[in-house]
């Protein structure tokens, strides 16, 4: 295996240690009353790997020598990782909500409120039906 391949393999193994599935959708956080929160993050990754053979003044210019051994190898690898929280998925007593971590405009906030509005509407409809049913029972007597 060439030195560049060795550097690439080592770099990729280290990146796999840093970024896994639990980095993007985090481990669940359990709260009181059976609440569960799952953090969701954005992972940005960049890396550079390179290398080459560089001549030195001490290199012999013999034609019989192996070209790979004539020059010393120089290699480097750089990795950058950014993890940005994006949202939190909250589950409690049968309902699920998504809390946006970086809601920066009204549309994001409106979309975030939709599940709560639907749940409130369901509750109002249930209450109206129960009141109508109890009123019908009273009027029949």
List the helices and strands and how they pair.
Blueprint: H1 3-18, H2 21-24, E1 29-30, E2 36-53, H3 67-70, E3 73-92, E4 95-100, H4 106-140
Antiparallel strand pairs: 1-2, 2-3, 3-4
Characterization of the model:
This protein has 141 residues and is an alpha+beta fold. It folds into 2 domains: 3-102, no CATH class; 103-141. 42% of the residues lie in helices and 33% in strands. The protein contains 4 helices and 4 strands. The chain has helices at residues 3-18, 21-24, 67-70, 106-140; strands spanning 29-30, 36-53, 73-92, 95-100. Strands 1-2-3-4 form a 4-stranded antiparallel β-sheet. Strand 1 (29-30) and strand 2 (36-53) form a beta hairpin. The mean pLDDT is 76.
Summarize the entry for a quick read.
The protein has 141 residues and is an alpha+beta fold.
- Kindly report how far apart the N and C termini lie: 92 Å
Given the C-alpha coordinates, what overall shape results?
A: rod-shaped
Tell me the β content: 25-35%
The assigned structural class equals alpha+beta
Q: Specify the biggest β-sheet.
A: 4 strands, antiparallel
Q: Fraction of residues in helices?
A: 40-55%
Spatial strand order of the main sheet? 1-2-3-4
- The mean pLDDT is 76
Number of self-contained structural domains: 2
With helices defined by DSSP (H or I, 4 residues minimum), what is the helix count?
Answer: 4
Q: How many strands?
A: 4
Q: Low-confidence runs (pLDDT<50, min 5 residues)?
A: none
Give the topology string: H per helix, E per strand. Answer: HHEEHEEH
Q: What integer value in Å does the Rg equal?
A: 31 Å
């Amino acid at each position: 295996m060439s030195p560049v391949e060795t550097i690439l393999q080592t770099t990729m193994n280290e990146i796999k240690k840093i970024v896994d599935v639990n980095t993007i959708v985090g481990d669940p956080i359990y709260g009181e009353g059976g609440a569960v929160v799952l953090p969701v993050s954005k992972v940005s990754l960049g890396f550079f790997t390179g290398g080459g053979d560089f001549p030195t003044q001490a290199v012999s210019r013999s034609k019989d020598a192996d070209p790979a051994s004539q020059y010393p190898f120089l290699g480097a690898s750089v990795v950058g990782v950014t993890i940005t929280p994006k949202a939190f998925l909250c589950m409690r007593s049968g309902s699920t909500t998504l809390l946006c971590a970086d809601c920066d405009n009204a549309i994001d906030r409106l979309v975030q409120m939709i599940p709560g509005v639907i749940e409130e509407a369901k509750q109002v409809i249930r209450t109206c039906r129960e009141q109508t049913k109890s009123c019908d029972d009273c009027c029949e007597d």
